[in-house]
Amino acid sequence: MAETGSFTTAARKLGRDASVISRRLSQLEEQLGIRLMSRTTRRVTLTEAGKLYYRRIQVILDELAQANREASDIATSPQGVLRISLPVTFGRQWIAPLLPAFLKQHPQIRIDAHFSDRRVDLVADGFDIAIRVGTLRDSSLTVRKIASYRYVMAAAPSYLAKRGTPRTPESLAKHDCLGFSGHAAWPDWLLMKDGKRRTVHPTGPPRGGQFGSGADGGD
Fold this sequence. Notes:
This protein is α/β, with parallel strands linked by helices. Helix content is 34%, strand content 15%. The chain has 6 helices and 7 strands; from the N terminus they run ααββαβααββαββ. It has a 3-stranded parallel beta sheet. Strand 1 and strand 2 (44-46) form a beta hairpin. It is elongated.
């Protein structure tokens, strides 16, 4: 209305009813305790207070429009810092080699990659993306499968010659089992045979080992 001088013209431009706009203006004036516009049967004009108010909010509206444009630019042309949490081995072997091509395709993005098997809190630690191996525990996160993996159960021939080869999951209790504490399933081992998954919890000494892995056929 400050630009058009008419409720009807302003309503037409905004796609709203003129009576709604008039009512909203009256509510604003009542809230501020001052008249912003002078109304006649032919024209609506700004009062002195209205001119000052309009100049101030115009700056805010221009800033809002600029913010909207910048947000749209980011959507069409990604930019800024992308913080990623990656598991050490998988990240260095499979993800790191892909980063140069990604940065070439998106030159306005900078990568801040952290390689660690520690399970980070994406929100608290300020990460945008985390790539993890295993089952997602926090259902509030959005997850997308990018690859499949498979663990194998292994032992040195000299160890098997001395201690014997385990034939059943239960027999693992008698063996020196090492587990990877950074794995999502720790301290359990997820075993699969003939399409059937089974969870076991090795208890043989030494307990609390941090190297090696159980066998898992999960995705």
